[in-house]
Amino acid sequence: MTQSRLDAIREVIDWPRGSFARRRLTLEIEVHRLRQRMAASAAKRGLSVPHALQLRRKAHVRVLSAAEPVLMVAVGGTPRLWMVRTLARELRGRPAVFLLLLYWSAESEASVSVFHREAERFRADFPDHALVFLCNTARERELFRAAGETAFFANHNMLVREDVFRPLTDVSPRFDAVYNAKLAVFKRHSLAALVAQRALVTYVDGVDMPPAASRAFFRGLALDGWGVVNPLVDGLPRPISPEDVNRAYAEARVGLCLSAEEGAMYASVEYMLAGLPVVTTPSRGGREVFIDPEFCTTVEPDAQAVRAAVDGLIAADIPREHIRASTLERLGAHRRQFCDQLGAFMQARSGLALQSEAVAGMPVTAAIADHLSRLKTR
If I label 359, which of 198, 206, 244, 303 is the partner at 20 to 30 A Cα–Cα? Predict the structure, then answer.
């Protein structure tokens, strides 16, 4: 978690700088990182990892309101709601709403039941706090609601920033396709092996494999003909800024989505906002929500099929501005639906009304935060 995220949370919770609560949250995050390192080390040696030391994903938090705190938190890992509990302890005794982003597919009763059990324990410990699951697919929403949870169909790709990801008129394409995918086996990079000129935007998060394995995996990709966009540090790709990612999209003609299962995959919508058509394989997790068959081709997980689809979309030469405009229309409808759901929920809970018009003209989280801030001053 970045310092800016810590500062934003501190403002909501009214921590004085250097307070015990701030130190405790910082300690929680350091313990989380230690668990990651211990689990990775154990896995490298072929050892089993005790439940308490299993990997926990990195925390991502957006503060939407400080009137009644409304925080959007990515959830998953083990335990599922670890970061929500960490924040809730500092907000104990104050009404608060946690909007929970599912960053991995939960389209099964077994997965939802794990979340539900943790949510039940959470509500027993923090009765003033509400949990709302933001589901990437309609099926996920049905499963969570059947379990008795409050759930919206709010695909997290609606959060992609259209002011960052956009066509660039001063850049000429030099790659047939680009794949924005972290170093992980589930991303199935090999399915693009037959695409002649392909660019890779990537990163390492320390969750899927330890550093030595990441280096070996990356060396294999580099030898396989990928044009790696990222600069290298100590044999591994260093993350690049969103603006540089967008420039990499401008240098390509098609975006690739090749995993069989994950979350909604931000890159799938980033491509389209940048004006790229998309080749995708069937997947579970929610990226199909914004896929438009006019300029997106879904193929079986086969390298020949991927190459043929890339060639077909290049030949179609669909204008980038058309792809972007169509994607913005779909995003707008989904964002309005989300705001209407959130508005009805907040109205029933605390009398705050949020209309779907709040999303007009700005990124959705910024729009909601701005709207809730203005409601606070009424």
Answer: 244
